[in-house]
Every structure is written in structure tokens, then in C-alpha cells.
């Protein structure tokens, strides 16, 4: 699995040097030219780059025409086609419309699976399996909380929920193991220990190690070779983009432990 961590401008170059690829949030490009320039330079170096439509940060996907313009300008390796949170029908409609309207954009198309129930998620997955170059699965479906309603917090429910979703989909031969998958975000970092043998998961992105490190919260050793947290800070990394990072040791400690969870 290739790992990317979003990071504030103060340490974005160092974090990039310690990760496998770069992950960009499109809504920050115009607001922070230095942020955009980081990804321009990454492209020049031949770094694999994914451009996100910023739906997690904005609550809805970035304007489609503006997003397409940034794709043409940056030419990322892959980009996340605008989706709609937990709305299966709208997400499928948006993806189909995108295929018709933007035929010649550079980069692989990542389709995000959306839905509120098992059946909706599977239906959306099957659509993306046929139409997207890469399939993405999010970390925070409400379905996960229905699967595990009695956990100590929602982040534990999300962690166990995605683990069970992927396991069940694999067991039922729903997962297209011939196609690359991307895991969007993280509730708790110890989740990814479960995916060590899932070679169809190609990329993951999360700011979790960085956000907690900035607050000087280090991952705990939960069991042998597993590091993580019992709860999660609810701060979104994009709100911290221009902050000076005081606890850099904690950031890079967490990044190392995150990688150890996956790679051993």
C-alpha cells in the first residue's frame, strides 16, 4: 500500500519526502498559491499525485467545471470524480455525467463508493467497478455505526465498520481484485493492520498522524506491533494549513508508527 499524509505548509515538503505519493485538496489551490506550487513541483519530480474534490472539507464536491480546469492545469496522476456523501444515485449520476462532459482530462478517474445501506453500497461499488479506473471507499459511512452501534465512540465504529465491509465484500466476491482501490481517510490508525494482505488496496490517504502529532498526541502501543489511538481529534487538517508546527517529532513519530501498522 502506498501512503500519503496531508500536511501544513510548514512541513509539507518533509512529509512528502517521507511518504509514497502526494494528495492534494483542490479547494486550497487558489487560496494558497504556495500549496498549489508544492504539487506543481511534485509533478515535475514525477511523483504520483491524487487530486481530491474536497468534499470531506466542504461538505459537497468542488464545482465540476472549476475542478476540471484545475485537472487540466495540474495534470495529476489521478483525481476523484465529484461524488455526493452517502448518496448512491446522485454519485452514479454525477460520475456518468462527468464521463460525458469531460472526456479528455489527464489522469486516472477515481470513483467513490457512496450509499447508506449494504445494498446501496454494493450497487454503487458495482457501478464504479465497471466505470472507474480506481475504486475508493470512505472511512465514515453511517452504515458503519449501524454495524457497530455500541463502541466507545464513532471512530471505533467506523474502524470496525470499514474492516467488516471490506471483509464481507471480499468474502462474497464483490471486490474486483483486478482493479486498484483507494481508502479515503481514517478514523483510528490501527484499522489498517487488517489490510496487510489486501494487495488490491493500492493507496490510502489520511492526515491522522499529522493532526495528532501537531497536538503532541503520540500513537500508543496497543498490542505487539500495533500503534494507534482510542479516540480521535475532530480537527480537519485543512484548517491548520498555515500553522507553524511546534511538535514535529510527534508528527514524524506517528507517521513512522502508521507505516509500521501496514508494513510491519
Chart the SSEs and their pairings.
Layout: E1 2-4, H1 12-17, E2 22-25, H2 33-44, E3 49-52, H3 55-58, H4 64-74, E4 78-80, H5 88-101, E5 108-112, H6 118-131, E6 134-138, H7 142-147, H8 154-171, E7 181-184, E8 201-205, H9 208-214, E9 220-223, E10 226-228, H10 248-263
Parallel strand pairs: 1-8, 2-3, 3-4, 4-5, 5-6, 6-7, 7-8
Antiparallel strand pairs: 9-10
Helix pairs in contact: 5-6, 9-10
Largest sheet: 8 strands, parallel
Per the CATH scheme, the topology name is TIM Barrel
Major sheet strand order: 1-8-7-6-5-4-3-2
Catalogue the unreliable spans.
none
CATH architecture title: Alpha-Beta Barrel
Number of DSSP E strands: 10
**What level of helicity do the residues show?**
40-55%
Structure, described:
With 264 residues, the chain is of the alpha/beta class. It has one domain (2-208): Queuine tRNA-ribosyltransferase-like (TIM Barrel, Alpha-Beta Barrel), CATH 3.20.20.105. It has 10 helices and 10 strands. The protein has helices at residues 12-17, 33-44, 55-58, 64-74, 88-101, 118-131, 142-147, 154-171, 208-214, 248-263, and strands at residues 2-4, 22-25, 49-52, 78-80, 108-112, 134-138, 181-184, 201-205, 220-223, 226-228. The strands form 2 sheets. The chain has an 8-stranded parallel beta sheet with strand order 1-8-7-6-5-4-3-2. Strands 9-10 form a two-stranded antiparallel sheet. A hairpin with a 2-residue loop joins strand 9 (220-223) and strand 10. Helix 5 (88-101) runs parallel beside helix 6 and helix 9 runs antiparallel to helix 10. The longest helix has 18 residues, at 154-171. It is globular and about 45 Å long. The mean pLDDT is 97.
Amino acid at each position: 500500500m502506498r501512503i500519503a499524509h496531508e500536511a501544513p505548509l510548514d512541513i509539507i515538503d518533509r512529509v512528502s519526502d517521507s511518504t509514497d505519493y502526494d494528495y492534494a485538496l483542490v479547494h486550497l489551490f487558489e487560496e494558497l498559491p504556495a500549496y498549489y506550487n508544492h504539487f506543481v513541483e511534485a509533478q515535475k519530480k514525477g511523483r504520483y499525485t491524487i487530486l481530491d474534490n474536497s468534499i470531506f472539507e466542504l461538505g459537497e464536491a468542488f464545482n465540476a467545471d472549476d475542478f476540471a480546469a484545475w485537472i487540466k492545469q495540474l495534470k495529476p496522476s489521478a483525481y476523484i470524480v465529484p461524488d455526493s456523501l452517502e448518496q448512491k444515485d446522485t454519485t452514479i449520476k454525477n460520475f456518468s455525467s462527468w464521463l460525458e462532459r469531460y472526456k479528455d482530462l489527464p489522469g486516472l478517474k477515481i470513483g467513490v463508493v457512496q450509499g447508506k445501506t449494504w445494498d446501496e453500497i454494493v450497487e454503487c461499488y458495482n457501478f464504479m467497478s465497471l466505470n472507474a479506473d480506481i475504486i475508493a471507499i470512505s472511512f465514515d459511512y453511517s452504515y458503519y455505526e449501524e454495524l457497530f452501534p455500541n463502541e466507545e465512540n464513532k471512530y471505533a465504529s467506523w474502524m470496525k465498520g470499514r474492516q467488516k465491509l471490506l471483509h464481507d465484500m471480499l468474502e462474497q466476491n464483490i471486490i474486483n481484485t483486478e482493479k486498484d482501490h483507494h481508502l479515503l481517510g481514517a478514523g483510528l490508525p490501527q484499522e489498517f493492520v487488517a489490510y496487510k494482505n489486501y494487495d488490491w488496496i493500492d493507496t490510502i490517504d489520511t492526515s491522522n498522524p499529522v493532526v495528532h502529532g501537531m497536538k503532541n498526541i503520540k500513537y500508543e502501543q496497543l498490542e505487539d506491533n500495533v500503534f494507534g489511538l482510542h479516540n480521535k481529534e475532530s480537527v480537519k487538517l485543512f484548517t491548520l494549513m498555515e500553522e507553524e508546527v511546534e511538535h514535529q517529532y510527534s508528527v514524524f513519530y506517528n507517521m513512522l508508527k502508521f507505516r509500521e501498522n501496514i508494513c510491519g
